[in-house]
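dumping this here before i forget
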Amino acid sequence: MTAEKKIYTLHHEHQEWLKKLSFYKDDLKVMQNRVEEVAKNYTSQDFQAMVDHYLNQFLIQGERINSLKHEIKNYEHLIQNSVLDNSTAVDHRTLPDHEAQREKMVRFEEIFAELREDLMNFLSKSL
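structure:
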């Protein structure tokens, strides 16, 4: 049986996640710019292979961010429709918790932190 949470709690968590995802999207751009800037100074095939690896990872994580945002916005539509269907005592009403979404966000943040750390190690060795 799925746990229930108050609508406002779910909405607040969604807004927090969307802000985090926007930050991560911006952070991807910063990391990509840094890799591209450093790549101009190195021409070895091994180095360029690593540059390609990171650029691919940035694309993958950018797509993951878009996917997570889409899922969150879909659940927000569910909340909105629930409120529109019955706005009575909305501050006391509940909907099923989004446990799977929460797990996806936690896992994404772990992967993103690993990518950032790996990139920083790579760049520090390159400079």
